[in-house]
Structures are given as C-alpha cells and as structure tokens.
Design brief:
alpha/beta; globular
C-alpha cells in the first residue's frame, strides 16, 4: 500500500517520460505514451514465418525464427541519444571534484584543463547538483538514484542498502558484466557490502593490487590506477558481453598527497593531478579500437568547500561536473537544465531503453518534465535550486535560511519526507 502511494507521489514530482517522445506517461503504459504507441512504425514481420529479417540472417547464423518489431530511420524519434552503447561503457567517479575547484584558474593556470577541454566534445551537464557532501552518500545517490539524508548514511546500514535499486543490478539483468575499481579500502563506510549486494560482479581494491609504487594515506595514487583501469577496459572489450566498469579516484581527497605540486595550495594541486590522470585514460582509450564502442561518464561524488569558508548550505558548495563522452556517443550537447546527482540513474537507463520505475526518486534528465530542479542535503538541512533561484532550509530550527519560493520549500520537504518514508520500508 505505502509503496504504491510513494510511487504515485513520485510520478507527480517526477513524471515518467516516454522513451520515444519524452512526454508524460502513466505507469500502466510501461514507458511509451499512448500517442507513440499508435505511431509505432510496425513491420508486422512476426505475423509471417518467412519475413525479410529472417531472410537477411538465413545462412549467416543458426536460427529457428527471426523478426523485427519496427522500422528504423535516422530521422525517427525512436532513435535514442546513445549510439551502440550496448557494446560497452565505463564510469569514473571523481573524488571531491566540485565546480568551484574544477572551474578555477590560479595565476593564469586552469586547475582542471582536461575536463575543461573535454566538455566541448560530449554531453556536458552545466547545472548538476551533488546529493550530499560525503563519498558514501554520493556513490549511493549516483548508483542507486536515491537522495541523501542530512544526518544519516544508508550505505552504513547494509540490511537496508541492499534493497535499493541500482544501475549495476539493472544492467546485470540485461547481460552486462559489472566491475568497481578503487585504489583504496572499499570496506570503508561498508561500501564493498553495498556494491556486492546491489549488482557488482567484481570489486578491485587496494588489498587486491600489488604495484611497485608508493601509496598515500588512502591507497594507490590515481596515476597508478589510471593505467590499471585502462588495461581493465581493454580486457573487458575483448569479451562478447557488454560491460559497466567504475573507477573511483582518490588522489583529490585529503590530505591531498600527490607527486606533483602545480599550485601552492595542496588541494588545488591534487585536483590538477586527478584531472591529468582522467585525461590520460581518455586519451589512451581514444587511440584504441575500443573507443568507437565506449561511453565514458565522468561525475564527482561530491564537491569540496572551496573557496575556503564557503557555507556548507550554499548551492555553489554542491555544484559538480558531469560529462558523457566517447565514440559511442552521438554528437555534442550542453544540458543547462538543473538536475540532481540522483537523476543520473534514471537518465542512463532511459537512454539504454531499460526500465527504471523502481528508482522512485530519480528523474530522466532528458525527459521534458515541466519542472527541472536540483536537490541536495547538508548537515541538518536541504536546498532546492532552479532557474528562478534557490531555497535553503534548516531542519534544526525549522526555518528558511535563504528564501526563494514557497514551491521550492514544499518540494524540498516532500523530497526529504519521501526519502525517510522509503527508508522505513527497506
């Protein structure tokens, strides 16, 4: 009963988008609106034993029967944004990569030159808002499409976290191999338990790696893992099944111990170093045969409090980059709509034509929802931001810190209450 109620509430705030035209669609229509259902360019091949599809594959592969559902054309709305993604994909979670640091220039030198260069090549999300301020919450928001809470971490509660939906689990159902690579300790904040429980086949962490290289407080530096991850992608590409591989960086985490000091500020030097490692992986794959069939997604787990002294509740404190690029991507695009880190799951799965209705708090960014907004939490509060401004609310004093609109305040309260209601049912 409650789960149905939450699903109905979710559909009001996050109306499901038709996978064809992007319009609103009811739950009973399973992803395709009524108008598009009537306009499907059907082949009707399945009605005939000997049809053009079967004739095309006859003699090429052993088959009993073959058919095609609808006709394909380049100018049809039935084309999806992503081209050939089914053959492979990788995702990079960049530690603490906030926009206030990656967009920064110091003494004429760009802190993250590779990210700034690459964002003109793919799909760049200008107004992505991090769900929280911690890695465990950011990873869960991205992979499970679940909004963070101000004062708790679901990842630390395995009996609940294991019941959350996840991108890895959804992709495994479609035949994908899934892996998660990190140069540090994946048992920190119970992450390994969460990753295994939600669909990752293979986890690689510090204890599994034996490099002749120095380590920092958190593990192997990103330059060491960059080469390892590139090799892992090439190995995955040699297999017949599609794959989903994640690399979580760590060099841009305190105490910011990196082998190069580009800036006097250690934190900015660590961001520059991590950016160079990400750029190295991208360029290595660009020169490989895997590039044409690979989608690379770069997104941060959370931002960093820079400039120093920035309020923990400020919107700028929660802006993070997200970039999709690779040979599997069709064209370039800048997405200016406000969106939340938790929206990534539904957005990716929608592009792959994979059901995502179980991600109750995740919205497809590309669907033409009437209202686009970013939502985040900080210690004892939340924020909602859209094109009209932002509202920041303090849950301790039950008062508005920054007043934007009554609608933003109500949406934030609804989001927060919905998260806790779902948690009770896990």
């Amino acid at each position: 009963m409650l789960s149905n109620l939450l699903a109905d509430l979710s559909s009001l705030l996050f109306p499901s988008g038709c996978v064809v035209c992007g319009g609103d669609v009811s739950g009973s229509m399973h992803g395709i609106c009524t108008m598009c259902r009537y306009s499907i360019p059907l082949t009707n091949f399945w009605k005939t034993e000997d049809n053009p599809t079967k004739e095309h594959f006859a003699g090429i592969i052993p088959l009993v029967h073959a058919s095609s559902f609808f006709y394909f054309s380049h100018d049809s709305q039935w084309r999806s944004l992503i081209h050939r993604f089914k053959y492979g994909g990788e995702w990079r979670l960049a530690e603490s990569f906030g926009r206030t640091t990656t967009d920064c220039t110091v003494g004429g030198q760009v802190v993250a030159p590779n990210l700034q260069r690459l964002k003109g090549e793919g799909v760049w999300f200008e107004n992505m808002i991090a769900s929280s301020f911690r890695t465990d919450r950011g990873v869960l928001a991205t992979l499970s499409g679940f909004c963070s809470q101000p004062t708790m971490s679901i990842m630390k509660e395995p009996q609940r976290a294991s019941h959350l939906p996840s991108i890895a689990r959804s992709l495994r159902r479609e035949g994908y191999r899934t892996s998660y690579i990190h140069g540090g300790d994946l048992n920190f904040t119970n992450m390994a338990s969460y990753l295994y429980a939600t669909g990752f086949d293979k986890l690689v962490a510090y204890k599994d790696l034996h490099f002749d290289a120095p380590t920092s407080k958190w593990g192997y530096a990103d330059d060491v893992l960059a080469d390892y991850f590139t090799g892992h992608i090439k190995e995955q590409s040699e297999q017949s099944a599609p794959y989903f591989a994640v690399w979580q960086t760590l060099s841009s985490h305190e105490p910011f111990d990196v082998p190069t000091a580009v800036f006097e500020d250690k934190m900015l030097s660590s961001m520059h170093f991590a950016d160079s490692c990400i750029g190295r992986v991208v360029e290595s794959l660009r020169q490989s045969e895997e590039w044409d069939n690979t989608l690379i997604i770069i997104v941060a787990d959370h931002a960093y409090p820079y400039p120093y002294g920035i309020s923990a509740s400020a919107v700028e404190r929660h802006r993070i980059p997200m970039l999709w690029l690779g040979g599997a991507l069709k064209g370039q695009k800048r997405v200016d709509s406000y969106c939340s880190q938790s929206d990534f799951a539904a957005t990716l799965l929608a592009q792959l034509d994979i059901a995502h209705s179980d991600f109750l708090l995740s919205r497809d960014i590309f669907a033409p929802n009437p209202y686009k907004f970013g939502y985040y939490t900080f210690n004892n509060g939340f924020g909602v931001v859209d094109t009209t401004g932002s509202t920041i609310y303090d849950c301790t004093t039950e008062s508005v810190i920054l007043e934007g609109s009554t609608e933003q305040e109500q949406i934030g309260k609804t989001m927060l209450q919905s998260t806790y209601n779902i948690i009770k049912q896990l």
